[in-house]
Amino acid sequence: MRPHQWVKNVFVFAGVVFSHTWKDGLLELRVLHAFVAFCCVSSMVYILNDWHDRASDARHPRKRHRPLASGAVTAPVALGLAGLLGLAGVLLANGNRTLLALLGLYVTLNIAYSWRLKQVPVVDVSIIAAGFMLRLLAGTLAVGIAPSRWLLLTGIFLTLFLGFCKRKAESFQHVASQRAVMAHYPSALLDTFIAMTMTATLTTYSLFATSLEAQSQHGERLLYTVPVVIFGLLRYTYQVHRGRGEDVARDLLRDGWMVAAGVLWLAIFVSPLL
After folding, report:
1. Which of 35, 55, 160, 213 lies at a C-alpha separation of 20 to 30 Å from 185?
2. Mean pLDDT value across residues 201-221
3. How far apart are CA 132 and CA 160, in angstroms?
4. What average pLDDT does the segment 96-115 reach?
5. How many degrees, rounded to 5, is the angle at CA 2 between CA 127 and CA 14?
6. Cβ atoms within 10 Å, residue 65
7. Average pLDDT score over residue span 192-213
């Protein structure tokens, strides 16, 4: 189920945070349901992926320790758990058609990714980014919060940046010899993609922080978070070039400087003095 990966689902809360609607208890509950639904459905996808890749994972130096690849868990038990998680995700949607559609699209894209499209250059990273964007839409459009255009643009570039960083980190690992798509990603090309998407992320976030929309909702506080975001992206890029970043959720939480940057960003954002 990979619970540590659930940190990716915090994208669901972006709409509540940036729209300042966290005091609406009913809205908070709907967003929380969407978050837990994505946790269940994403874990279901991980199980299906591990079931599909169990033979190749068994030959991988690290992935061979996964429950299905090692034989610690049988396929029927794993698939049964996947079915229960999928059902839980549907029930948590509570009949919300938009959320159900987003969850369905997420599952469809990720199964297509796991079983075929992860071998297609650029398409593979675009699907990774789409997964993050579906989470963002689940916490905005699906619960009745109008998504900010700046938030969507920043989210698109940030998730593409994370996706290409993942491929760069994989190029330093043994996984490069097993993931066929890596043959289509020369190191210089990945560096170009990372630089381009990082620059676009910083540009759109900075424009968002200084926009009239942000000023009216958040005052000056977003402006003061820009240096923190710059530091965070540069620090993450540094970690990627040290061979980390293959597992975004794990590596973000393991770097104390990245965690400190996240805490500082949040402290500035909620500060009553700004």
Report:
1. 55
2. 88
3. 9
4. 92
5. 55
6. 12
7. 93
pLDDT mean across residues, the chain: 87
Rg of the chain in Å (alpha carbons): 19
* CA-closest candidate to residue 82, choices 68, 62, 99, 96: 68
85, 47 contact by CB (below 8 A): yes
Place of tokens 């299906």: 48
Q: Is the pTM of this model over 0.85?
A: no
